[in-house]
Amino acid sequence: MRSHGNNTDLGPFFAKFRNCTGLMELDLSGMGLGGRLPGSIDHPNLKMLEMQDNHIFEHIPPEISNLSNIRMLSLWSNFLNGTIAVEFSLLLRLESLFLSCNLFNIRIPSTLGKLPHLGLLDLSNNSFNGEIPASLGDLILLQSLFLNNNLLSGTIPLELFKCSNLYMLDLSHNKLAGRIPPELIEMSEIRGFINVSHNFLEGPLPIELSKLERIVEIDLSSNNFSGNIFPQISSCMTVKMINFSHNSLEGQLPESLGDLKNLESLVISSNNIAGNVPMSLSKINLTFLNLSFNNFEGKIPSGGVFDSATYMSFLGNPHLCGVKSSRPSCPQKKHWFRSCTFWVIFTIVRAVSLLLPALCCVNGIRHIKLMVSSRKNGRSRNPPTPEIMHNFPRITHKELSNATGGFNDQNVVGTGLGSGPSDLSLIQRVRICSDIAEGMACLHHHSPVRVIHHDLKPSNVLLQDDMTALVSDFGIARLVRTVGAGNGCEAIGNMGNSTANMLIGSVGYIPPEYGFGSSASIQGDVYSFGVIVLEMNHYHGRVDKVVDSSLIRASLEQPPEVKRMWEVAIVELIELGILCTQETPSTRPTMLDAANDLDRLKQYLNGDTATAFHSSLGIPSSIGGN
């Protein structure tokens, strides 16, 4: 499609578009459209308008109300900002509104609560601020509400829970505080998920969660919740994922969790939960379990998920024992005390106590005689002190050139990061990964014209004398312009097609989506970076080869507090690599996220231990704290 002004003047198009009265659906997504939405936007019968993945900027005009029959309006992944006109409330037939991944930096308009048929509202990945308007509770037909990844503050309004038909609720990654209202029980029909993670919510876990009998996912992680995990949680019979990590939960883990027959993932890391690990968890179909950094004690059960979980699921529980813990063997209780045995042992101990002084005297006399004899005869037998070499040979450049045949490639011992990660200390590995992430974040997020490297691998990373890492070799890099607004919502517009539709990169570092014809994106570089991170730690996806053995040996030689810091860093690096190499590009973090996470980890290892380490990516790694 081509419009006036190289697709930046949409006025003439929409002026003629209104005459197509028989048109009911219009899809202009990913067309490279720019400019503003014109005031001439008007159509009496249009029911669906899709204009996502474009360059449209500024505000949505009041004339949007002229689309009086519109059912679905999709404007996500543009550069829209400014206000949302009150005329929006005139779209009385609107059922789905997508405004995510834009640049809105305003309060959520209360007029959105006047759309009587609205069933889906997606305002995620913007900078909406202020409180959630109570008027959203008037959307009685609302089924899906996505307000995540904004700057929303205040408490969760009680009125919101009047939306009794709500299927999915995502309020994560905001600044919400206070408690979850008990009115949550009014949402008993919720069947999808509730996600309020990464906020400042507090108080005990709301027992009203147990009334959500049809819910599939519950994520309350990275908040300030306290108290116990109540046994009534077993009433959520359809739940598949529970994440209560990074809170201040206490008490014991209830055995009733074993009644959740559909539970597949349970993450309760970084809390203060104590007691034994429930045996009942071995009887259900759990495929992922993370109980790390708590106060569990006793023996790790066997069977079910406990046979497939790695030791990382139990890190930071010093009182746990078993093959998956820091104490492989558990102390055995001895039941040998009987009356007959007791008297036999008592008799032996009594006899030894009488004979021991005499034996000590005899042995002492013999020792004194030997000392006197050795002084007379052995004073001249001390071993000679080894000679210390003070002068080391200096080799000139000419000698090196002659010895290597003019630095011939056939004489190269190693390339890229040297002879291998085993030569690097843990802090060096973290610093190198951090340098690479910062360089790629600059290319992806801070450059006026973004750059896709396309061939990120160890041999394209140069190390300076001070071990600073630099990304090099931009031979097949591509310049791109962004279509979206960040937060992983980018679409890419080409500025040159020399490498378009080609499978480029190096084997082992090419993201899987390129093999299926997907266009290039910055998430492809994220995948390559993840492979490098895993290589830096020798991760092989096997329990017996989780990390480089040199790191394990070095960790065991450290004091307990340093050893625990190293454990966190190793787990953090591996899980960051796994996150970056996920099969679906949209689930990978951005290089900016990775750079920020590694920078905090680097500061932590350098001695900034005033607070516990928390990953910005939701990775359950922590030291001493919540």
UniProtKB/TrEMBL annotation:
Pfam families, sorted: LRR_1 (PF00560), PK_Tyr_Ser-Thr (PF07714)
Entry keyword Transmembrane helix: yes
InterPro entries: Kinase-like_dom_sf, Leu-rich_rpt, LRR_dom_sf, Plant_RL_S/T_kinase, Prot_kinase_dom, Ser-Thr/Tyr_kinase_cat_dom, Ser/Thr_kinase_AS
Domain of life: Eukaryota
Record keywords, A-Z: Leucine-rich repeat, Membrane, Receptor, Repeat, Signal, Transmembrane, Transmembrane helix
Annotated compartments: Membrane
All residue ranges annotated as the Protein kinase domain in the record: 291-605
Its membrane topology: Single-pass type I membrane protein
PANTHER family for the chain: LEUCINE RICH REPEAT FAMILY PROTEIN, EXPRESSED (PTHR48053), OS02G0216000 PROTEIN (PTHR48053:SF151)
Protein name stated in the entry: Protein kinase domain-containing protein
Lineage of producing organism: Eukaryota, Viridiplantae, Streptophyta, Embryophyta, Tracheophyta
